[in-house]
Design brief:
6-stranded parallel β-sheet; 11 strands
Length: 200
């Protein structure tokens, strides 16, 4: 499976012709909306969308991902993780579209948000439009805050509060970043997130 790091400053529509990971990474936010539309017209093709976001104070992301399955036997797994600092805004719409002819499709949406600051806004809107009857399609979404017991444990080991929070944030993002198969892309994402530029 090849890996492509996409530019989040322009909308993308891609016809998926081979097994591919599509990686999104953003740490500044934007007033503009970004959309990624994957179109599956070749039977048996599999893809992943991996989105890693760390929004600064007041940062905004308006993101739409769509997997449009037109033929049998395709797969798309979408995983989004976002860290929200003070007054940041994360708006995510995930779409799964499965045509009547696209039997034996597998599609999944998962978005997880860690709210670090106060006054954050988070909106998750999964949309599944399924016309076929032999498919596996589902979605999941979570929003949470830093676990105070984890914070207490780290501080009891002599680590300051801010550094402890950074360790927890890194752990939250690490699981998804590990999924990036290409080492060079993985290092670029680590660097963009301000994390250690080494394998996790």
């Amino acid at each position: 499976m090849k890996t492509i790091l996409l530019d989040t400053k322009k909308n993308q529509e891609i016809s998926v012709s081979e097994d591919t990971q599509f990686v999104l990474a953003e740490n500044r936010g934007s007033e503009d909306e970004f959309s990624l539309n994957l179109i599956f017209q070749k039977p048996g093709v599999a893809s992943e969308i991996l989105g890693v976001f760390h929004l600064p104070e007041g940062g905004k992301i308006h993101l739409t991902t769509s997997s449009n399955h037109l033929v049998p036997g395709t797969s798309c797994q979408t995983y989004i993780k976002a860290v929200l600092n003070e007054k940041s805004d994360f708006d995510y719409r995930g779409e799964i579209l499965i045509a009547k002819e696209a039997q034996q499709t597998t599609a999944y949406l998962c978005d997880n948000v860690l709210a670090v600051g106060d006054d954050v806004k988070r909106n998750s809107r999964p949309t599944l439009r399924i016309e076929a009857n032999d498919v596996k399609a589902s979605h999941g979404s979570t929003t949470g805050r830093i676990d105070q017991s984890e914070l207490y444990y780290l501080e009891s080991r002599g680590i300051g509060k801010r550094e402890s929070e950074e360790i927890i944030i890194e752990g939250f993002l690490a699981g998804l970043i590990r999924k990036i198969k290409d080492e060079d892309v993985r290092k670029l994402v680590l660097d963009k997130m301000g994390l250690k530029n080494e394998p996790l």
